[in-house]
Amino acid sequence: MKPIAHTNLIDPTAEHSSVNQTAHDSVLAADSFASHTKGKTGILRIIKATSYSIDGFKAAYKLEAAFRQVLWLNLILLAAVIVMPFALGIKMMLVVASFMSLIVELINTGIEACVDHTSTAKHPLAKIAKDVGSAAQFLALSLLMVLWVMALSALLY
Fold first, then answer.
1. Most exposed among 16, 55, 118, 130, judged by the fewest C-beta atoms under 10 Å?
2. 3 and 26 housed in the same domain
């Protein structure tokens, strides 16, 4: 049986190269399509990334009722955190849990958009992807509820 030789896609005359390394290098090359699409470096890249993030928030709010519901729920809960006489550690824990539920909902929305972009036809793998995203959000909201119940019970007892 003849051994498989690695081929360097950039420099075929190179004797030792890994296909994975070569593919990795070509993807990260300075003149790759992705680097041109992403644009600038430094502060300009941060500004562009911030713009993309704002676009993501707008799209999620406009297109996803679940994101709007979670956002408004968490805004109410964050206002409650401010006025409730919880200890600082408890307030921090509740704020982190609120942000986590928003982050999970954004990721779930992204998963659903990717699956729907691929195909809107029913497929078992598409169902699994969407259901797993939903399960992650269920856990995040359950955690938020449990932490709120614990925080409120600490005030009462």
1. 16
2. yes
Cβ contacts of 74-81, under 8 Å, gap ≥ 24: 74/98, 74/99, 74/101, 74/102, 77/144, 77/148
The answer to whether residues 95 and 139 belong to one domain is: yes
Alpha-helix residue ranges (DSSP H) falling in the chain: 19-27, 33-38, 43-63, 65-83, 88-118, 124-156
Q: Is 105 a catalytic residue?
A: yes
> Does the predicted model carry a pTM greater than 0.90?
no
Is 104 in the same domain as 79? yes
Residues 93-117 have pLDDT tens digits of 999 999 999 999 999 999 999 999 9
Mean per-residue pLDDT, 117-136: 95
Confidence of residue 17 (pLDDT cuts 50, 70, 90): very low
User: Which of 15, 64, 105, 112 is an active site residue?
Assistant: 105
70 neighbors 102 (Cβ within 8 angstroms): yes
